[in-house]
Amino acid sequence: MRILVVGAGAVGGYFGARLVQAGRDVDFLVRPARADLLRGQGLRVRDLDGTVEAVPVTAVTADTLAPGYDLVVLAVKSYGFDAALKDITPAVGPGTAVLPFLNGMRHLDALVDRFGADRVYGGVAMVQTRLGEEGEIVEVGRMAQLIYGPVSDSPVVPLTEVHAALDTGTFSATATGDAVRELWDKWVFLATMGACNCLMRAPIGRINSAVGGREFSRAVFEEAAAVSAASGHPLRPEVRERADRMLGSTTSETTTSMYWDLTRGNPVEADHIIGDLVARGRSLGVATPLLALADLHLRVYEAERA
């Protein structure tokens, strides 16, 4: 199976490198400057112990992209999605599956509109990595998992084939028959954690340790969960239990990549992760005052950046 990984950042770079190491046929679609870097020094991955491994990879750019891929793995930040959607179009043929690993749901709607449901998969990536100052992928935790499945009952590329390509043993790979539910489960958790971190400028443990902090984080979670339920995806009891444990910690130093970007003056994925959730809640008659406050806060931040 020929695989095109779109993006060689913290998510696409990490999982793409592991696929290459497992012997998969992988190209990386990146910008020209990134392509030059990858061709010159490979895709570098720094492990938790500080060891850096340079993985030789094939880098292509949008102007040289040609058809012939069986699977397109889309792993870009949400604010780069529109450009990536345009770039990948020449690579998506009638027998190509597109598997995005973005947060929220807006990207899935756009992909179905562009390519049809039978060529679109839903995917959830959970990995503790970041992009280093010299373009390397830096592991900051042991978590590395992909969950994926088709959004159509008749995908052009069967789930068994996609799973065979991704299940390399180098990370956790899970095929699912309900990828949309998995996306909603992660979205609720991520929006909650991101809103709490960004509004309070602190890891979740420090927020919960303050007087009123746990009540605040629980209220944000309930807003997000209410939007999910109104959209037809009520959270399962085990998901609630896991979220309560992680979001209720008084010792955890956990933050989101959105908080990382915010505190470093980078662009943030606020619109896809929080803004779209607020908009869906509004259309369904679900009140989300705390999430709306986080959305406003991040919109002001983006306006100041501009």
Verbal overview:
The chain is of the alpha/beta class and 306 residues long. Helices cover 46% and strands 19% of the residues. The chain has helices spanning 12-21, 32-41, 81-88, 106-115, 159-166, 179-200, 204-209, 213-230, 237-247, 257-262, 270-284, 289-305; strands at 2-6, 25-29, 43-46, 52-55, 58-60, 71-74, 97-100, 121-131, 137-150, 172-175. A five-stranded parallel sheet has the order 5-2-1-6-7, sandwiched between helices. Strands 3, 4, 8, 9 and 10 form a five-stranded mixed sheet that branches. Strand 3 (43-46) and strand 4 form a beta hairpin. Helix 6 runs antiparallel to helix 8, helix 6 (179-200) crosses helix 12 (289-305) and helix 8 (213-230) crosses helix 11 (270-284).
**Sheet having the most strands:** 5 strands, parallel
Strand percentage lies at 15-25%
Radius of gyration: 19 Å
List unreliable stretches of 5+ residues: none
Number-wise, the strands total 10
> Helical stretch count?
12
Side-by-side strand order of the widest sheet: 5-2-1-6-7
Give the end-to-end Cα distance, rounded to a whole number of Å: 42 Å
Write down the overall geometry. Answer: globular
Order of helices and strands: EHEHEEEEHEHEEHEHHHHHHH
Percentage of helical residues? 40-55%
Q: Summarize model confidence as the mean pLDDT.
A: 96
Helix/sheet category: alpha/beta
